[in-house]
Amino acid sequence: MSAVLATAGPSIYWYLTRATGAVALLLLTLAIVLGVVDVERWSTTRWPRFVLDSLHRNVALLAMVFLVVHILTSVLDSFASISIADALIPFVGSYRPFWLGLGAVAFDLILAVTVTSLLRARMGYSTWRAIHWLTYASWPIALVHGFGTGSDADSAWLLALSIVCSALVVAAVMTRVVVGWPGEIRWRGAALAGTGGFALFIVLWLPAGPLGAEWARRSGTPSGLLGHSHTATKAGGKRR
Q1: What's the pTM value of the predicted model, to 2 decimals?
Q2: What whole-number distance in Å separates Cα of residue 143 and Cα of residue 141?
């Protein structure tokens, strides 16, 4: 049955998986940008601090909602064998295990941040703050996961979305680094180095990786699905 469905073209779950993943990346980007620039310091009488803080929190929670739907539709899609455990426990799946595992890592980090934020009043500030920093690590991991697991990594819309999201994050980091310069020069330099290093990695990796030849095979797609993926693509659909 799985083989028959695979050759029939993408299912509604496949479209939902891609759509919710893209929206989740955009919302996560906005949450990261709001956190990096520390929007609370820009509060005014028109935009008081509690409004900006609520905006940041609600965008992050909405990103979590789309991530949950993204995972559920991936599990329900019969094309590839992906279980709830694969989505929560990194690197245990059979379908593109490394790249799918990165998605599990990103989700676990965001889940930890979400849960501790809801319990913030019961936690010490320093503990909450340390865990909250995990959000910043989840964003680059999620971006690489999207490129590594998606068969449409070379599509114009996904590349455009990724470029826009990356530009927003870089702009946020630059804003945070410039404001107050040269105070705390050590962490500012680390932020610039980390951002620049990741950007360079993406530029060098994409042509040889997801945008290169035979990425489906090289990324760890089970051999039994490679032929079905090729057939579906020739028929006008795209598979993971």
Answers
A1: 0.85
A2: 5
